[in-house]
Amino acid sequence: MNGLTTQVVVIGAGPTGLTAALALGASGVEVTIAAPPYDRAPIEADRRTTALLPGSIELLKNLGVWAACERHAAPLEGVRLVDDRGGLLRAPEVLFKAQEVGRTSFGANIPNAALNAALHAQVSSAQHVRWAATSAVVAVEPTEGGVALSLAEGQRLKSALAVAADGRASIARGAAGIAVRVWSYGQTAVVTTFQHTRAHANITTELHRRAGPLTTVPLPDHASSLVWVEEPSIADRLSALEPALFLAELAGRLQGLLGSVRAAGPIATYRLSGLSVARMAQNRVALVGESAHVIPPIGAQGLNLGFRDAAALAECVAHSLAEGEDIGGGATLAAYDRARAADVMSRTLSVAALNRSLLDDFLPVQALRGLSLHVLANVAPVRRLLMRGGLEAPGRLPHLMQPGHGPLRPRGPQSP
Ligand SMILES: Cc1cc2nc3c(=O)[nH]c(=O)nc-3n(C[C@H](O)[C@H](O)[C@H](O)COP(=O)(O)OP(=O)(O)OC[C@H]3O[C@@H](n4cnc5c(N)ncnc54)[C@H](O)[C@@H]3O)c2cc1C
């Protein structure tokens, strides 16, 4: 492609975009991130935390990011599911322990602010990653030989491949002609962090309620993050409460599970929606993160999926580079789509089904849900099967997500 300015452009600098840029850069590809410049304020304003699964942690280790994250993170040694629907068919409590499947933990929970700060710091010193600061990418034009981007300030960028890490309203996805389906769940997540007197013992608790799950996720010391899913009007009321009143409502829900609760941080709300795409890549554009999939925050899957996208894409691109193939060409994009489609589809469907099973009052649905929890509580092999399914993606994990593997190094020349 004439006037090629970089091999790959990553559009968007959320956690998936930064990770994709680092993974591609670690594989020897010249990457330019087209996104607003680093700004501490919005990063620190993100009150969410992310439960990272073991593969995501290995990825961050291999990219040199984890050392800066570790002290902010708490290990997740267990997951407790509690049926709090108050219906006729109350199911037993289920406790998944990492030890049962031969692990010390299921992963770790880290504040998004700490994770994003660590990713930005690593990007700023990464060898093959540059930053094209812009308020926004305003146009993406894929052609036979390459893809051209227009930045809001008037500059143009050309590359062999554009990585759409520009979130759920991705303009790059639209430009590539990838069909998208979007739906709403009619639920809002109330998010904050809080302290408590009883130790969480590194166990995440999901209270399964009629309006959606209420989840507490361990943070270091006697603190946890909260994702409390409610009907939007109730969530609005909760988020407007004085801190002391909010804590009283929370204490009522938790019923002493974590002792007395105190010192809640600022509260944020997120309307829950879903999004799925027809293909993960097309016309020199590869989708990663929420441009490709949006799922409710149940079972800690969203960003973990995005990290698997990033690592798989880096592997496909490194392979094409080594073979002297076009890194944005049809064969590379088809390999990426094959690598990611089953994982993305299965997580989107299973999380949506679990969420809907909580909302559905139809007795047979509740009976089936209760029966499943009975089986999980009492039949250890089934419990272990589900734990492994929750931790492991179908198929092989990308090299960058395997312990101590380190970045891939391409052998051949780049051929856009
Ligand atoms: C309440 C809640 C709890 C969650 N908990 C978990 C959890 O425990 N574990 C987990 O794995 N996941 C979790 N998730 C999901 C996770 O937060 C998301 O998957 C993740 O934030 C998505 O990151 P992203 O980089 O794909 O998208 P985003 O964070 O949306 O980033 C997109 C970026 O692109 C930029 N952008 C957009 N358009 C343009 C443009 N035209 N030009 C340039 N830049 C552009 C935006 O400014 C933004 O910075 C949770 C989500 C919610 C709502």
Give short descriptive properties of this protein:
416 residues; alpha+beta; FAD/NAD(P)-binding domain; D-Amino Acid Oxidase, Chain A, domain 2; 2 domains; six-stranded mixed β-sheet; 12 helices; disordered C terminus; binds flavin-adenine dinucleotide
Set down the secondary structure blueprint.
Elements: E1 8-11, H1 15-26, E2 31-35, H2 40-45, E3 49-52, H3 54-62, H4 66-69, E4 74-76, E5 78-83, E6 94-97, E7 107-111, H5 112-125, E8 129-133, E9 137-142, E10 147-151, E11 156-159, E12 161-164, H6 171-175, E13 180-196, E14 203-209, E15 212-219, E16 223-230, H7 232-239, H8 243-254, E17 261-262, E18 268-277, E19 281-282, E20 285-287, E21 293-294, H9 302-322, H10 330-359, H11 363-378, H12 380-391
In short:
Helix content is 36%, strand content 27%. The protein is built from 12 helices and 21 strands.
Structural notes for this entry:
- The protein has 416 residues and is an alpha+beta fold.
- The protein folds into 2 domains: 8-182 and 272-401, FAD/NAD(P)-binding domain (3-Layer(bba) Sandwich), CATH 3.50.50.60; 190-270, D-Amino Acid Oxidase, Chain A, domain 2.
- The protein has helices spanning 15-26, 40-45, 54-62, 66-69, 112-125, 171-175, 232-239, 243-254, 302-322, 330-359, 363-378, 380-391, and strands at residues 8-11, 31-35, 49-52, 74-76, 78-83, 94-97, 107-111, 129-133, 137-142, 147-151, 156-159, 161-164, 180-196, 203-209, 212-219, 223-230, 261-262, 268-277, 281-282, 285-287, 293-294.
- The strands form 4 sheets. Strands 5, 6, 13, 14, 15, 16, 17, 18 and 21 form a 9-stranded mixed beta sheet that branches. It has a 6-stranded mixed beta sheet with strand order 8-2-1-12-20-19. The chain has a 3-stranded antiparallel beta sheet with strand order 3-7-4.
- A hairpin with a 2-residue loop joins strand 14 and strand 15.
- The protein is globular and about 60 Å long.
- The structure holds flavin-adenine dinucleotide.
- The site of flavin-adenine dinucleotide has 31 residues, from helix 1, strand 2, strand 3, strand 13 and helix 9.
